[in-house]
Amino acid sequence: MAETKYTAVVAATGEGRNGGRAASNDGLLDLTLAIPKELGGAGGATNPEQLLAAGWGSCFLGAVKITAAKKKVTLKDLAVVAEVTLRHTHETGDYSLSAVLHLELSGVDQQTAEELGAGAHQICPYSKALNIPVTIDATVA
Question: For the chain, which terminus, N or C, has the lower number of CB atoms within 10 Å?
Fold first, then answer.
């Protein structure tokens, strides 16, 4: 049985993604939300896709570090750029997400970079939780 380590609690109120608010119970997160200009909204505030990208990118970076440590690989520089795309199927009216995780690192060869990305994807809680199309793109600088 898995041991609970932490539970994040965030309340979404108001109009949700259209001018609503997201606030954590500890007060550390308190954001106004807005529909992006690209979707016809006012913009000027964050949106759920950006929040997902921030969380997933940060978590995936940590998973790469864990994977590298298990393989005894030393990394010099490491960054993850997460792209979360909102899609709309006009015929059905359904919305869905897809993602690209750009892994940028140095100190390893291309094959090792790809192996680290694949390994991180297997242990990252976001990657395991989200059943959406994901591309992992590793680039060695």
Answer: N
